[in-house]
């Protein structure tokens, strides 16, 4: 059963990568590299780990997801559409005037989005607040926050990390999409954030390190995080920016560049999909 689940989620992630590429090509605006690097983790959350209800996005029993690296909104949008929060056809309206799918997540307009994010550094603070609020209400809901490694250059992240450990928010799990690149290039050259795991550990977090594209490892880490008590857990996931499309991979240039008309069929071929446009 475990192998079947992993295979199912791997195929789901492939399909969502296809959707990301098509969505970003249609919009000709948005962030390709970080959406593709995060999608395996997003897939594991939305289609296995998190409790949520597309028919009732405000259901009190739901777990919360905060996309701290809000520019990777296409990764969340394709998952929400696949889960049934809104029609898949809406994805083709990404970043269009009047669309509910803005360039960064908007909790006022998009079903399934918990908070507005995109100003880097603020997401973890909101996730900590959610975790504390749920605990005050004596609820067992969990909060998942997905950060980028470049985002860790923001001081507010570490204020939130300190507060999360101090208040022992063991209903909070942060995930770091550590793809090593940001808009200006190599994270270690722009402002080195390594060693990430050691930093979180020093702040009092329980720390797990995985390959962020190994679905079995992602599931095991999420399961383990749920059992760890007494404080928050962070999963540091080593990933590849642009994962799945060979000519996007490990290239900072594709941080905020979308597939061109010429690149679309090649990208889809990399993902095992034919271009029917």
Molecular structure report:
There is one protein chain. The chain is of the alpha/beta class and 277 residues long. It has a single domain (2-270), classed as 3-Layer(aba) Sandwich (Rossmann fold). Helix content is 41%, strand content 12%. The protein has helices at 2-27, 33-49, 73-83, 123-136, 155-166, 187-191, 196-202, 215-227, 263-270; strands spanning 64-67, 143-148, 172-178, 181-182, 185-186, 206-211, 233-238. Strands 1-2-3-7-6 form a five-stranded parallel β-sheet, with helices on both faces. Strands 4-5 form a two-stranded antiparallel ribbon. It is globular and about 50 Å long. The termini are far apart.
Q: Unreliable stretches, pLDDT < 50, 5 or more residues?
A: none
Return the CATH architecture.
3-Layer(aba) Sandwich
SSE order in H/E notation? HHEHHEHEEEHHEHEH
Number of domains: 1
CATH homologous superfamily title: Thiamin diphosphate (ThDP)-binding fold, Pyr/PP domains
Largest sheet features: 5 strands, parallel
Structural class estimated from helices and strands: alpha/beta
- Largest beta sheet: what is the strand line-up? 1-2-3-7-6
Would you give the CATH topology? Rossmann fold
Strand content: 5-15%
Radius of gyration: 17 Å
Question: Quick check: average pLDDT?
Answer: 97
What gross morphology would you assign? globular
| Number of DSSP E strands | 7
Helix content: 40-55%
Distance between the termini: 37 Å
Q: What is the CATH C level class, in words?
A: Alpha Beta
Treating each run of at least 4 consecutive H or I residues as one helix, how many helices? Answer: 9
Family: Belongs to the transketolase family.
Keywords: Thiamine pyrophosphate
Organism: Geomobilimonas luticola
Protein name: Transketolase
